[in-house]
């Protein structure tokens, strides 16, 4: 999805299952409301069939993830995560925990402030990072202690 409208390429999806590519959507969001359910279902069929790969599906649409999760076929090679950049988006973690994914993760990129309301119970993996470049916002990646044992396993 680029420019606000989805572009679906089934041949692209099929060809990338042989490459070892595991990030499903670096410039899009699988669970965006404009992505039709039949496409998501087909994407999951392809990921289910490529069990030699680990697919990482990252979304900001945690509510839709939870809504569709019961009707999707989750295999252990499909990891799902939510973006949580500040405390306003901690609620996404609770929707994620209700998904059927075997491996659940958070992406805190960029981590813009401490997350005092974040509960890591049920979370398997955490990605933490900042921004770079001339307009980068300050991040708090130096304070990793709030992630406890999950951070020590991920770093």
Task: Map the helices and strands.
Layout lengths: L9 H7 L20 H13 L5 E5 L2 H7 L9 E6 L7 H7 L5 E6 L16 E4 L19 H7 L1
Parallel strand pairs: 1-2, 2-3, 3-4
Helix pairs in contact: 3-4
Compute the number of helices: 5
Overall 3D form: globular
Query: How much strand content do the residues show?
Result: 5-15%
Distance between the termini: 30 Å
Estimate the mean pLDDT confidence. 82
User: How many whole angstroms does the radius of gyration measure?
Assistant: 16 Å
What is the chain-wise order of helices and strands? Answer: HHEHEHEEH
Biggest sheet strand order reads 1-2-3-4
Low-confidence stretches: 150-155
- How helix-rich are the residues, as a percent range? 25-40%
- Tally of DSSP β-strands: 4
Major sheet characteristics: 4 strands, parallel
Structural classification = alpha/beta
Give structural notes.
The chain is α/β, with parallel strands linked by helices and 155 residues long. 26% of the residues lie in helices and 14% in strands. It has a 4-stranded parallel beta sheet with strand order 1-2-3-4. Helix 3 (62-68) runs parallel beside helix 4 (91-97). The protein is globular and about 40 Å long. The model is unreliable at 150-155 (pLDDT under 50).
Keyword list:
about 160 residues; alpha/beta; 5 helices; about 25% helix; about 15% strand
Question: Would you kindly provide a brief summary of this structure?
Answer:
This protein is of the alpha/beta class and 155 residues long. Helix content is 26%, strand content 14%.
């Amino acid at each position: 999805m680029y420019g606000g409208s989805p572009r679906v390429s089934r041949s692209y999806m099929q060809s990338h299952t042989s490459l070892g590519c595991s990030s499903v959507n670096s410039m899009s969001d699988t669970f965006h409301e404009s992505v039709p359910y039949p496409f998501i279902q087909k994407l999951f069929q392809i990921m289910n069939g490529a069990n030699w790969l680990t697919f990482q599906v990252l979304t900001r649409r945690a509510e839709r993830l939870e809504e569709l999760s019961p009707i999707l076929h989750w295999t252990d090679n499909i990891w799902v995560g939510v973006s949580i950049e500040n405390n306003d988006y901690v609620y996404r973690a609770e929707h994620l925990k209700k998904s059927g994914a075997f491996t659940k993760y958070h992406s805190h990129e960029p981590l813009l402030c401490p997350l005092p309301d974040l509960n890591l119970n049920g979370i398997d993996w955490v990605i933490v990072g900042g921004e770079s470049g001339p307009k980068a916002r300050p991040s708090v990646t130096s304070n990793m202690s709030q992630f406890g044992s999950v951070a020590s396993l991920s770093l």
